[in-house]
Structure formats: C-alpha cells, structure tokens
Amino acid sequence: MNLTGQRWQQLVAVGSPDSIAAWACRYLQALAVQQFCATTLRARTQDLARFVEWCDERGLETPATITKPILERFQRHLFYYRKTNGEPLSSERQGVFLQHLKGFFRWLAQNNHLLYNPAADLVLPRKRQRVLRDPLTVEEIATVLQSLDVSDPIGLRDRALLEAFYSTGLRRAELLGLTLYDIDARRGTVFVRQGKGRKDRVVPIGERAIAWVQRYVDEARPQLVSDPAQRRLFLDEQGRPPSLNAITLRVRKLFDDAGIIKRGACHLFRHTMATQMLENGADLRFVQEMLGHASLQTTQNYAHVSIAKLKAIHAATHPAASLERRSGAVVAASERSAIMIADLGTEADGP
Fold first, then answer.
1. Can 270 be counted among the known catalytic residues?
2. How far is residue 287's CA from residue 273's CA, in Å, rounded to a whole number?
3. Are 198 and 296 in a shared domain?
4. Residue 186 annotated in active site
5. Whether residues 61 and 180 fall in one domain
6. Whole-angstrom distance, CA of residue 329 vs CA of residue 75
7. Among 110, 125, 150, which residue terminates a domain?
C-alpha cells in the first residue's frame, strides 16, 4: 500500500481526464483552496493515492464505476492488510482511511460530478474505547528534569523545553513552532499560532517554566543561534529549529536514561499535565481549553479515574478492602459481619 509520488503522477498522466486519479487531484486542489493545512492535505493525498492504486490494479478507471459493494471490498482489503512488520492496521487507522474516501466521494456528489455518493452509507469500523497510557508521576517528572546538565547549552534547552511541555501541555509541533515573542512573561501566557485545526489560542504557563525559558534565552540560545534573523524559540546544535522526530527521540532518550519505562515521549507530558490538573480539581472544560480540543469528548479521554484515587475509595468503602486485628489475630474485614452477629448472639444468650 505504498504508492510513490512518481507512480501517482504516472496514473494521472496516463489516465483520462475523468480517471479516479485526475478527480482525486482536483479534490485535493479544492481542499487547498479551502485553506486546509498541509498536514491534512498530506494525509489525504497519501490515502487517496493508495485507493487509486488499488482501483488501478482492478481495472476500475473512473469514479462512476465505484459502487458501495466495491468500497466494501476495499474496506475488507484494509481489514486484512498487513504492514511490513506483520501487524494489521488499527481500527482507528482504517476508520480515518475510510473517512477520507467518504470525503472524496461526498465532494464528487455535491459538485455534481457523480449522480450519487456510493460512500454515503458505508459503515465505519467501531472505535475502540481507548485507555490512555499511564501518566508520569510527580517524582518521575522531577527525576527527568533534575537529570539534565543545565551547564551545557543543549541540556539547558532541554530543561526549558520540558518545563514548557509540562506546564502548558502543548502539542509537540505547537511547542516547536513558538517564536521568541510568543511567551508573555508579564502576563504568564503563551500564544499558540495555528495549532491543530489551524486555530490560534492563548494558554497559561507557570512561573517556573517561564524562569527556565528565560534562562535558556539568555544563556544557551545565543550559543546555538547561527542566523540573527532566526525567530524560533527552540534551536538545535546547528542553530536550526529541531525536527519533530528529533525532539521525540531526544525526549525518549531522556526517559530511558532516567529509568522511566512508560511508553511515550513528548505527548506523555501533555497527558500528565491534563491528568494531574483533573485530579487536583480542575474543571474539564478548562482543561479542554488548555489542550486545544475542539470536542469535550476528546478531553474526556484524560478524565479517567486515577488508580490512586480508585484505591483510596475502594479502601474506604469496600468491606473486604482491609484487615483488622482482633485478639492478636488478623481478621479480614469481610468477616466483620459474622463476628458482629456472633457477638450479638452471645449477648442475647446472656442474662
């Protein structure tokens, strides 16, 4: 399911102006005109290219030849497809793929390029109820932060970066996209430019994070910057904005060096921030604003009951959750009722 850009261009070139590939290109151009972000366009291009390849292999040339049963065949193809590592596509990935197809055929029908939308009644895979990975503890956060050598420019940059991650819960791309002027130390806020969904937002940032960022700007960044016109806040050893993957690998290495085996990297700070705020009484809608979620339902994934609180409630309310000592012997709390009944019986038999 890996279609190269060259093969994609070949399919468009050799096909008729009414080919599926040609119409897919027009659809993507329409999305670009509507100001869809580059990430969205890249994802839809990739998925439509794979669908075009699948249709080409089966002699399906034009959108008019695509019917609902054909799309259901493609859905089964996604279900049985195996990646190079032998793993199947997740149900979420299959759903996203089919959503992109539904968008394509909906556009064709809405613009009268098709008489009807063959994907209108396509049933998407059921979404699994996700349980988010365990967040970091306060102690683990401290271990990672204190392990950094802040006398080194990159170590100081990492400390400022992680403090900002932990304080704001920004996405990886949002944090790396910050400029020197996006953090307002006086107001204690961060201006996020064109976050997910191409939406601007303002989020608070704590005093500790501001202090570390300011120290990085004063002491480390001048040693890293190579172009005086560079406005990005966080830079790598070459004086350039680091790539997303580079920061992910860096953060994961810091976790490994600190002995933290929990899965994740940058997003683990975002998850930890949201979880700790909710556990400490923050309203879910305030956390939604911090995270920049369009839907409250997405934020609710972070609102799971922490195991620590669940254990505390269990210990306080379940009759068999603890042990008590009676006459030197350990007695299960579940036996309290029987003991109480026996005691009552003894008292009833007495004078």
1. yes
2. 9
3. yes
4. no
5. no
6. 63
7. 110
Q: Mean per-residue pLDDT for 100-126?
A: 93
C-alpha–C-alpha distance, residues 213 and 234, integer Å: 9
What is the per-residue pLDDT for 321? 67
Please identify which of the residues 159, 171, 172, 271 carries the catalytic annotation: 171
Is 311 designated active site?
no
pLDDT surpasses 70 at 306: no
Sign, CA dihedral 260-261-266-272, equals negative
Q: Which tokens hold the place of 234?
A: 């966080």
196 belongs to the catalytic site:
yes
Catalytic residue among 26, 93, 215, 267: 267
User: Could you tell me if 156 and 274 lie in one domain?
Assistant: yes
For the chain, the domain total comes to: 3
Highest mean pLDDT among 57-61, 285-289, 341-345: 57-61
Could you say which of 196, 201, 252, 304 is catalytic?
Answer: 196
> Which residue has 């669940």 as its token pair?
310
- The verdict on whether 126 is a catalytic residue reads no
CATH number, domain of 200, equals 1.10.443.10
User: Which residue among 157, 159, 232, 293 is the active-site one?
Assistant: 293
> From the candidates 44, 100, 232, 270, which is the catalytic residue?
270
Q: Give the range of the structural domain holding residue 340, as residue numbers without chain letter.
A: 319-351
User: Which has the closest alpha carbon to 140: 158, 170, 164, 166?
Assistant: 166
Q: Kindly report the number of other CB atoms within 10 A of residue 193's CB atom.
A: 13
* Whether residue 178 is found in the same domain as residue 216: yes
- 3-state DSSP helix/strand/coil % of the chain, to nearest 5: 55, 5, 35
* Residue 228 resides in a domain: yes
Locus of tokens 């939308």: 117
User: Over the stretch 144-192, which tens digit does the pLDDT of each residue have?
Assistant: 999 999 999 999 999 999 999 999 989 898 999 999 999 999 999 999 8
DSSP 8-state assignment for residue 300: G
- Please confirm, yes or no, whether 76 is among the known catalytic residues: no
